[in-house]
Design a protein that fits this description.
This protein has a single domain (7-224), classed as Tetracycline Repressor, domain 2. The chain contains eleven helices and no strands. The chain has helices at residues 12-39, 46-53, 57-63, 67-92, 97-114, 116-125, 131-157, 166-182, 184-187, 193-208, 218-221. The protein is elongated and about 60 Å long.
Length: 225
């Protein structure tokens, strides 16, 4: 769900109201994600979401028209986070295409980790969406993965990465990010989040880097060993 107009464009009272509304929305989405991931969206009532979030049912209906709207909003919230955090991470990484690629992958993983219940829910419950809702998700998924495709193309153009199928590699990396919550029950026995990101980054770069450029990125490849 979008956060609305920047607070700097509003008077203090309106900015405070929008901040409160955003916090309430995030509270509801978090509660819904946890319950739906645990029990399935069909089994979760709006009353259960309200109880989990510690609010009234009436408050939920101020934000969402019904359970299907709430499910869609939970999934869109993750994609919106991709849309904000991934480009920001790439920009902060500087000009080097490999560093930008590593930063992009880390940002996807960080979003997934902070929305773990919603990420699992996306895989399990997207079939419950309306046709219109499903098309919205597909469109946003393509849009929010474009920064990853862009940095891969940059690396190929710079002669640092081997020529590859950009779409295939981009979605391979997204699936690696999404595997963290889906198989967290397994990975958590031996890997923390930081280890997971470092090792997956190293494995991906070991396959993508031009052999003669690997020495320059030894610090990113070390975790593969």
């Amino acid at each position: 769900m979008s956060s609305g107009a920047p607070a700097t464009d509003l008077d203090p009272g309106e900015a405070a109201r929008q901040t409160l509304a955003q916090r309430r929305s995030e509270q509801l989405l978090s509660a819904a994600a946890q319950l739906m991931e645990r029990d399935g969206s069909q089994s979760v009532s709006m009353h259960a979401v309200a109880e989990e979030a510690g609010v009234s049912v009436g408050l939920i209906y101020r934000y969402f028209g019904g359970k299907h709207d709430l499910l869609l909003a939970v999934i869109v919230n993750v994609l919106d986070a991709f849309g904000r955090q991934v480009p920001a991470a790439i920009q902060a990484a500087g000009a080097d295409p490999v560093t930008r690629l590593a930063a992009a992958f880390r940002a996807y993983c960080e979003v997934i980790d902070s929305h773990r219940h919603a990420a699992v829910l996306t895989h399990r419950e997207s079939k419950s969406l309306s046709d219109e809702g499903l098309e919205t998700i597909k469109r946003l998924e393509v849009e929010t993965s474009e920064p990853l495709r862009t940095v891969i193309r940059e690396g190929i153009d710079a002669g640092v990465l081997t020529p590859v199928d950009v779409d295939l590699v981009a979605y391979d990396l997204l699936l690696l990010a999404q595997a963290w919550p889906l198989k967290h029950w397994y990975f958590e026995r031996t890997l923390g989040f930081e280890d997971y990101v470092r090792r997956q980054t190293a494995l991906a770069l070991a396959a993508l880097l031009q052999p003669h450029r690997r020495r320059s990125y030894r610090h990113l490849l070390e975790a593969a060993g």
